[in-house]
């Protein structure tokens, strides 16, 4: 008998803050992770999400529970999920640049309801699982484009992370071939976005370099994952185009030193529509 349904029910009884609290104690988190790995199935499995915003919407994903417990338990970037739910409205158009396997894409899809989501994912493996996850949940308001966003139209290659293979970066050559296109080129074929989420493993400055018309004319809200080496260039571009920028860090409800969720994020609002506190 699989213990996954039992663990999911138990996780559903614990508030998300309670699950995140385990990360205050790395040794305890390690023990729990090891214990779960001994009872959870290996490989890709269809599972109902156990915690976080996707659980509230009763969504399912194909996940590797040995490696992707953070998606299953709903501890993945809760500050980003909060921003997507707060700044997207029914009927909006959203762009998910670097959609991975669709965790945020699904949240966007449910939030905009009759609106539309454009998901860019250049990695063939991730894009295939993204499509499977969309089909699994009967999603019909998402279009998947198997391309990377960049400063210019070109052919490039994807380099896989040596420890986390699903994470890829665009390189000039030497990996899986992929097409690169500026976000500005998408404006002629799809509706302009109200919000753009960017998670491109260090290429965020290049993405903005190919989005001058989006920045200057469309004026969406941006939610961008930062990776250190390009922070200054990203913030400089946004401020030059009259955006107000704030760092999400590890989120409002999570301490800044909480070792979960990866790099910090940036929320950027057009100055003319920025919240008073920005």
Descriptors:
2 domains; 23% strand; seven-stranded mixed beta sheet; 13 strands; alpha/beta; 278 residues; four-stranded mixed beta sheet
In a few lines, what is going on in this structure?
It contains 11 helices and 13 strands. The chain has 278 residues and is an alpha/beta fold.
Q: Taking all residues together, what is the mean pLDDT?
A: 85
Give the CATH level 1 class of the largest domain.
Alpha Beta
Cα gyration radius (Å):
18 Å
Percent of residues in helical segments?
25-40%
Oligomerization state of this entry?
A: single chain
Number of helices: 11
Taken in chain order, the helices and strands follow as: HHHEHEHHEHEHEEEEEEHHEHEE
Strand content: 15-25%
Provide the low-confidence segments as ranges: 251-261
CATH topology of the largest domain: Rossmann fold
- What count of domains describes the coordinates? 2
Shape: globular
Characterise this structure.
- Helices cover 34% and strands 23% of the residues.
- The chain contains eleven helices and 13 strands.
- The protein has helices spanning 4-13, 16-21, 26-39, 53-56, 69-72, 78-87, 103-112, 124-136, 204-209, 212-218, 231-240, and strands at 44-48, 60-64, 93-97, 116-120, 142-145, 147-149, 154-160, 168-171, 176-181, 195-198, 221-225, 243-247, 265-270.
- The radius of gyration is 18 Å and the shape is globular.
- Mean pLDDT is 85; it is low at 251-261.
């Amino acid at each position: 008998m699989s213990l996954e349904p039992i663990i999911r029910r138990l996780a559903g009884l614990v508030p998300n803050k309670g699950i995140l609290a385990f990360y205050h104690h790395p040794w305890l988190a390690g023990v729990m992770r090891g214990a779960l790995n001994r009872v959870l199935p290996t490989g890709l499995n269809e599972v109902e999400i156990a915690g976080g915003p996707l659980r509230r919407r009763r969504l399912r994903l194909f996940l590797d529970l040995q490696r992707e417990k953070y998606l299953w338990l709903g501890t993945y970037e809760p500050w980003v999920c909060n921003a997507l739910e707060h700044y997207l409205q029914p009927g909006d158009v959203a762009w998910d640049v670097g959609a991975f396997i669709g965790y945020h894409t699904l949240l966007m899809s449910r939030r905009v309801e009759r609106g539309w989501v454009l998901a860019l994912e250049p990695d063939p493996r991730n894009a295939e699982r993204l499509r499977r996850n969309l089909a699994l949940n009967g999603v019909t308001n998402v279009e998947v484009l198997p391309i990377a966003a960049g400063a210019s139209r070109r052919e490039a290659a994807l380099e896989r992370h040596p420890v986390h293979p699903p994470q890829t970066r665009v390189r000039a050559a030497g990996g899986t071939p992929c097409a690169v296109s500026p976000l500005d080129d998408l404006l002629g074929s799809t509706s302009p976005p109200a919000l753009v989420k960017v998670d491109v493993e260090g290429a965020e400055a290049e993405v903005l370099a190919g989005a001058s018309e989006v920045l200057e004319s469309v004026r969406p809200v941006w939610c961008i994952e930062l990776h250190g080496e390009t922070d200054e260039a990203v913030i400089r571009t946004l401020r030059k185009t009259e955006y107000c920028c704030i760092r999400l860090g590890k989120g409002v409800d999570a301490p800044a030193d909480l070792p979960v969720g990866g790099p910090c994020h940036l929320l950027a609002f057009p100055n003319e529509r920025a919240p008073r506190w920005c």
